[in-house]
Amino acid sequence: MPIKKIMLEDKIFGNIKFLQHVRTLNKRGTQEAEYEIYEMASSVYGSIQVYISSKVTKVKPKYLRQVELIKPYVIPRSNVMTIDNKKRANVEYTLYAAEFLVIGGN
Predict the structure, then answer these.
(1) Which pLDDT tens digit goes with each residue over 72-100?
(2) Element (H, E) at 77
């Protein structure tokens, strides 16, 4: 049975600072928004992209404002490449969160 999602602890990324809203990801074949993609800076992992559902109230904090991810989880996916007629596979993870809270104002 494949792994659907891996739940993470809220504090696993250390201090997180908001950088920017990257783009809106629409549902396939429609113009309806499914996820908002944000770029954030983690003190542990560096720059990360976080997918947050569009149904959550949209908040756009100021640049470098400290935020906290609520209920983060990752979904693994395999990426297979062919190099010199040899297949190379690696696992990539997409980071999702239920929402994020701004710490200390907006």
Answers:
(1) 999 988 888 888 888 888 888 899 998 88
(2) strand 73-83
